[in-house]
Each structure stands twice: as structure tokens, then as C-alpha cells.
Amino acid sequence: MKFQRYLEAKKSVEEDCLSLRVLDDVRGRLKNEDNVSVFEAGAGVGSMVQHLVERDVLPDRFTYTALDIDAENVERGRKRLADWGRRCGYTVERDDAKMRFDGAKRFDVTFAEGDLYDYGREADEDGEDADGYDLVVAHALLDILDLRRAVDHLFALGDAFYFPVCFDGVTAFEPPFDGDGECDEDSGDCGGFDARVERAYHATMDAEGRAGSSKTGRRVFDAVRSAGGTVTSAGASDWLVFPDGDGYTDDEEALLHHILGTVYDAVRDEGSLDEDKLDAWYDDRKSRVDDGTLVYVAHQIDFAGRCGDGEVPNHI
Ligand SMILES: C[S@@+](CC[C@H](N)C(=O)[O-])C[C@H]1O[C@@H](n2cnc3c(N)ncnc32)[C@H](O)[C@@H]1O
Fold this sequence. Notes:
This protein is an alpha/beta fold. The protein has one domain: Vaccinia Virus protein VP39 (Rossmann fold, 3-Layer(aba) Sandwich). The chain is built from 9 helices and 10 strands. The protein has helices at residues 3-14, 20-30, 47-54, 71-87, 147-157, 192-205, 216-226, 250-270, 275-291, and strands at residues 36-41, 61-68, 91-95, 98-102, 106-113, 133-138, 158-174, 230-236, 239-241, 295-306. Strands 1, 2, 3, 4, 5, 6, 7, 8, 9 and 10 form a 10-stranded mixed beta sheet that branches. α5 (147-157) crosses α7, α6 (192-205) crosses α8 (250-270) and α8 (250-270) packs antiparallel against α9 (275-291). The N and C termini lie far apart (43 Å). The site of S-adenosylmethionine has 18 residues, from α1 and β2.
């Protein structure tokens, strides 16, 4: 499956999971401000612009810069946002990377291709640092980057931050595949094969030489404090995908297949588990998606706060 399809599926799954408390915090900070500017790093196919407009978090006039390092995401994101705007009743003028939306709100989105770390505050005409953004956003991004470096860089760009969907150490599938709760006498491993798959998968996120961590969520508090900022709200944004009376939606099914494939590929490459058993696990999980009997839980945390006015601890 194309990564862009996964990101589109993720948008609809996340409509039910973003922390409302954290969104309220962001709304309270910006809703009554004029000329609000937002910068989003790793914007994927543009889902967060949609979330923030659909949930009326941003004021009636704002500018939004969405940046992603992947050209396919950017191309897809530009088209998706223009189509979405028209469906929502906006007049959309598009000039390559720039889009102007005119309707219930009036806002400009610039969707650019580039690396977050190449993106700094521009100098104004006098050579001074130009004003920063009112809000910097990193959505489902910090867990694949060097956390401290990313937070430091983002804080240099803005006044307030919104970091939703920071993965935090739980990838669970139900019902169990094999041996739920049993402990292996030789290895001491508990929780059966599912737990071993989860541990091996998280180990790939934590591997030396790879940016990101399986425990990013809980570590954001310290990264923010160390960078001189303040977390003013935090709340869980767990993905909880299950078949309701009508089974899964197309997006839920697409997301489940993408996640299972990602876990399987990562654990197979990691190499610590029996390959035949891992294949059987993958086949079983996929067939449960087809039967509508798999439940998937991923624990994630959303954060909002101020970038620059916390007390910087002495050790920095
Ligand atoms: C897990 S995806 C999340 C996408 C989107 N924020 C969402 O939640 O739907 C992470 C995104 O970050 C982008 N990315 C990774 N490293 C980046 C960097 N250094 N600068 C800009 N974008 C980056 C990837 O191309 C990818 O689209």
C-alpha cells in the first residue's frame, strides 16, 4: 500500500482520538488572535490543516506553512487539500505550492517540500530575526526523529507548540495469537508470542543509530523542559481500532493492513524471532482483519504548550 493511502486512512481514524483537552488548549491560545501563523513540520498529506479547521481551532484568518521532506506526500497533500476545500464550500485558488481558501474562513496554505532542519527563521530587512510562527506543529513526527534536536529546532521557530500523536510504548493486538500470559521458562519472556513481537518491534524503533524512540511520548515532557518550554496540556490520543456492528471502515481496514505490514517487516528484519512462527502470526492477524475480529491499540500522547518561557534547567 502506498504510504499516502495510509496517511489518508490515519486522518479519519484520528478524528476520534485526538485529545480534546489539548485541542481546547491550542484553541484558547489562538482563536481570538489576528493574523495567526502556523508552521507544521512533517505534514504528510495535510491532515492536520483539516483537523484544525474542522474543529474550529484556528481563527477566521490565518496562514499555514506545511513542510514535508517527501515529494510524493507534498504533491498528494496539495491536491487533497484543494479538493477538500472545494468540498467544504471554499473557493480555492491554487498557484503551485500556494493555496488560498476563501469561505467560512479565509486562509493561505503553502505546502512545501523540504527538511525541517533546513528551515530557520528568516531575517527581516534589517537583518534581524523575523517574527516566529504563533504555533509550530509536529504531528506523529517526534517519534521518528532525535527528540531533543527536533524540539530545540521547532522551539526556535515559534511561540507555542502542538505535538499530537507521539507514540508511547504500546502496540497491542487482540485476541492473542498464541499463549497469552504464559511465561517461557528458559527466556523468562511473558505474554506469549504477541508480547515478543511487540518487544522486537519496539526494539527496532530504539535501535542504536536510528533516530526516534518507542517511548517518545513520555519523554516529551523532559525534552520540552530542557528546551526552555512549558507543557500546558497533555492527553492520550490512543488509536483504538475495532470492528463495530458494521465491521471496519475502509480507512480502518487500510490502516490495520499497513500497521501489520510495518510490524511484520520490521520484526522479520530484526531477526530475533522464529521466521515460520512470525509468518503464521502475520497470516493470522491479516485473516482476522478480513474476518473483522482484530482489535488494535496503540498508545500515543498529545502535547501543547509554550515554546520559550519555561525555566531552562541549570544543566543546559
Ligand atoms: C509518520 S508521518 C506523519 C505525517 C503527518 N504529520 C500525519 O500525521 O499524517 C511522518 C512525516 O514526516 C516527514 N518527515 C520525516 N522527517 C522529516 C524532516 N526532517 N523534515 C520534514 N519532514 C519530515 C515524512 O516524510 C512523513 O510524511
